[in-house]
Specification:
Helix content: 10-25%
Distance between the termini: 119 Å
Number of helices: 2
CATH topology of one domain: SH3 type barrels
Structural class: alpha+beta
Radius of gyration: 37 Å
Number of strands: 7
CATH architecture of one domain: Roll
Order of helices and strands: HHEEEEEEE
Strand content: 25-35%
């Protein structure tokens, strides 16, 4: 009888293999996260910035911001802020046929600038016998840098209206 039982067990095993097995699916839909877990997740992300958004610029409205910005300005021409400059003279070099602009800032030190010299928040674009043209980098409200032209004229003071 033992052989007969073995044969029946083998037949049952073969029939189970031939029969298609039903797919196992979740009987309950996915549960939404509880409100407490969502609050904990948002607290964890509160201190982190969005990696796809540009960080805010370091200065205020003008790139670098001058006196408003944090930290000291670089030494020399690279530390000159356009809004703080006053044109005190223009020199024409005959040998090289170039113009030099003599500018001062609040410290009353004289600095010599030539075309394409970089300053803290821009660059010297053009020098004429009576004025200097700067291309100033300005930040808009969205944090994008745009350029505008600033003209410093000889003998003009902030209230002269030139």
């Amino acid at each position: 009888m033992g052989a007969l039982q073995n044969v029946r067990k083998m037949q049952e095993a073969v029939q189970k293999k031939d029969r298609p097995q039903p797919e196992h699916r979740a009987t309950t839909p996915a549960q939404p996260k509880p409100a407490a877990e969502n609050a904990r997740l948002s607290e964890a992300l509160a201190g982190k910035r969005d990696p796809f958004k540009l960080p805010p610029p370091p200065g205020n409205k003008v790139l670098g911001g001058g006196a408003d910005s944090a930290g000291p300005l670089p030494p020399g021409n690279r530390g000159l802020v356009i809004s703080q400059l006053k044109l005190t003279g223009v020199v024409h070099q005959e040998a090289s046929n170039k113009m030099l602009a003599v500018v001062t800032n609040d410290t009353k030190r004289a600095y010599f600038l030539t075309e394409n010299d970089a300053v803290y928040n821009g660059v010297v674009s053009k020098i004429t016998p009576d004025s200097v043209y700067f291309k100033e980098n300005v930040l808009d409200q969205n944090g994008r840098v745009s350029a505008r032209e600033v003209i410093k004229r000889l003998g003009s003071a902030p209230g002269d209206g030139r």
